[in-house]
Every structure is written in C-alpha cells, then in structure tokens.
Amino acid sequence: MRKLLTFFTGTLITGSLFAGGLVTNTNQSASWVRLPARNASVNIDAVYYNPAGLMKLENGFHFSVSNQTIFQTKEVENFYAGPGGAYGLNESLYIGKVKAPFFPSIYAAYKMDRLAFSLGFNPVGGGGGALYEEGLPSFEMSASDLVPALASQGATAYRLDAFLEGTSVFFGFQGGVSYKINDFLSVAAGLRYVTAKNTYLGHLQDIEINLPSGWTRADLIMTGIAGQATTAATSTTALVTGGAGSLTLAQAEAATIITTAQRLALEGALTAFGSPTSVTISQADAVFKGAAARYTATATLLGDQEVDVEQTGAGYTPFFSVNISASEVLNIGIKYEMATKLELKNKTKLDFLTGFTAEGVPITMFPEGALTRNDMPAMLAVGIDVKPLSNIKISLGGNYYFDKAADYGHKLDLDQNSSTPSTFVPNSDIIDQNGFSIQGGLEYNISGNFLVSGGYVFANKGVNNKYQSDLTYGLATHTFGAGGAFSISDNFRINFGASYTKYVNDEQTINHVFAPLSLVIPARETYAKRTMMLGVGLDLSF
Fold first, then answer.
1. Residue 295 resides in a domain
2. What H or E segment, with its residue span, contains residue 261?
C-alpha cells in the first residue's frame, strides 16, 4: 500500500485561517471586520496596520481590545472509483469544521507631539482548530483498495474509524516607535516576536473488510496471508537446505523429492503471490519470504494507529512604516514586514506509522525532536484613505506576500512508493505567483457619535496543483464586511461588524496507485470553503 497516512504535512493548518495571505492573517481588529481596508488607518489599530499613522492620534494614551468569533467550513469531495470504476469510497464528501471562538487583538499606544510608543498582540497566523470527524479522502483511498484486492476471497466492502483534529496559532507580540518628521511625513519601526504552536491529534483504526465469513480486521487478513507465505517458505527453505534449490518444483517432483500434492500446493502459492511456477525452488523461497515480510509490514500499517504531536517554535519579524499626509483629505500608509524564520520542533507522544524503508526501518510522520521550517513570508502593505466630504471616507489598499521566497513548503509523495519517505518540495515549486489582496471600503458618519461602514477584499493565493491536497489547499477569496461604530463619549468607542468570505472552488486530479496491479488510477477531487466572522471591540483614549 502507499503511504497510508501522508495526509499529515508540515503545514497542517498553520496557514492563514481567514482573508489574508496563505500563512498570514490580516483581520487584526473589529474595525477591520466592518471596514476591511485598514492599511492607511490612523486609529489605534494602526499599531498593526500603519504604525507611522499613530502620529495622527491625539496626544495621550490609547488602548484597544477586540475579539472575533470565526466559523469556517471546509469541503473536500473525491470521486475515486477504484480499478475499473467499480470500487469507490464509502463517502465522497468530507467536511471539516474550523472554530475560533477567541481571536483577540490588543493594542496600546502613548502619543506625544513628535513621538509615539506602541505595543500590540494578535494571532498573526493560524488561529483556530480544524476537526474532521470522518477523516479525509486520503484516509480511505488505500483502505478502499482492499476490497478489489481481496475480491477473490469474496470481499464486498470496507469500513474504518478515522478522526483528525489539529490546532494552530501563531501569536505576535510587537513593540514599535513612531516619529513625526513634519506635518507631511511620519515614520515608524518595530519588532514582532512570534510564537508558534501546532497540535495534531487523530486516529485511524478498526479497518475492516466484509468477507463471506463477516467483517474481518484488515490487519488480521494480512497477517493470515503472511502466515501462508511463511508456511510455504518453511517447505522451500527445507528443500534449499537439502540441496534442491536449483530445481524447479516439477523437477523436484520427478525426482521424488516432493509429492504431487506438495508441488500443487507450492505452485498454487506462487501463483497467488504473482510468481510464475517455473522458477527454481531457491527463487520460490525468495518469493515466499519476500511476501511474508511484505504482508507482515502491511498488517502493521493497517493496525490501529494514533497520533498525538505538538510542534513549537519562535521567530522575529522586523517591520517598517511610512505615513504620508498628502493633504487634509488624503492619507497614505505604507508598511513592510520582513520574513519571519520559524523552525518548529516536534514533541511526539504518539506517532503514525506510514511505511518502512527498504531496510525495514519504520517511517513515521513526526519523529521526536525533528525540526520543520514554517516561515512567514515578507509582506508589503499599502493603503489610501480619501475624505471627499467631512462625513465620508473612502479606503483603498493592497497587500503583497513574498510567498515564493519563504520556506514553508510541503512534503509530497512524489514517487508514489510506500517504501520511501515523502519528499520536501519548496515554495518555488508549489507556488506559481506571490499572493496579493486588494481592498476597498466606505465609511459614513451618520452623526457625531455613530457611523456605518462596509468593504470588500479580493485575495488570490497563486498556488499550483502541487500545493493542493485534501488537507492543505489555497483558494482565491471574496470577502464582504459591514458594521459600524458607536462613540459613547469622546474617548470611548465600540466597534462591531460581520463579514463573510466566499472562496473560489478549485479541483485537481489525484493520481492514486492501486498497489496490487501497480496501476495508476486518476480521481477528481474538489475543494471548497466558506467563512463567517463576527467582531466587536472597544477603543479607549485618555
């Protein structure tokens, strides 16, 4: 069988959960939810979006705390139908639920005439947990192959118990300094400390095949076949030891070394294991011993398995910002974040077994202490705010993510060989274009203390088919957000909003190897997502 459990990758759900880049969250305030074009912000959330823009605040202390509650649904549909199109998966549609009830953003700034100091905390990547109660297609494709592989024994169906839950969150703790050069130009610089934690919890167990005798564990079937090979090898080994290794079975029968019944039994075993019956007894012995080892290893892979792994790491993100107050009605914000080098270390409690090397050494997905690069890419953000009227603001902006140069590539089963580990593929091979997003929005002050706003974000992902899998896939997005803000007093504001992200569906052809015949069988697989988000926050000034 192929690597049965290669659904785990180094980027399980470590990417962006929402409407940012592939691995970068940009929904970093409740104000963003109601107006998702914040790159030229001169409010307190400028701590993240436009640090130089903090110089537009009034002198004094400013504080903001907000939270977003986010729900995401992932849908993967796989149309694999096995050899001849007659053996499909039990379920074609697999649904994953991602919940992030708490997605906080906290900002503080102290502003003086020409200088400001700021602090910020937010989930810059990940931010939720994904739950697949029925597993994924890659859990079942190889298991479903057991039905046609054992059709001669009367196999008619398969079943299994699969479960996967993963969490990922990259918290950012940042500090910055902003400086006003003149009324036209302000600058800022700072550093973000990023802590990363991924967890993986799952199992694949009770793989069973429906035979005429009833439901039978697949590992017991494989153990039985291995036992048959071992029994046959006992006979051939004895013949080799006795000096008959160079003879064929027919020749050994003619020489009365074995009986007709023994010849027929051994020839039947050779046929069952895909070998011609004309081989020498030494060659037959090698066939039986190889089959015994192969089916014993397969039985181990088909046994109950669990994973319980934690990955942790940390890195630093320097950032720089410029704010240009071109006029009373035009403000421009520019921010550049450098790449964040993150190296995550495995802490393994339980680990899935995915195969064996040619030397019989087990291959696991998460070796204890192994290091995985999971960088965050550099990012350039530009925003423009225009106020054609005193009570109307138009916000425009864009983000560009330098994904191709970052190091957070996937492990892929390129050779489709169960006896070799997965191969690391860099971003340059799985991403055709760097990611970007464009934003626009409108804010309207209805009265002195109440405003409404809304906006739209389009984000591409730039990935190719090598990137896409049932667990990790990147889709272009259309995000719509709306809400408002209510000022209880001059120094106390409540922000609230809701947004919906529509993902552009994608699909690809999965080339699955049907191991008994070494036959590559293509299967269409489709990917879809949708996200709902609610945000509320408080802005205070003293």
1. no
2. helix 260-272
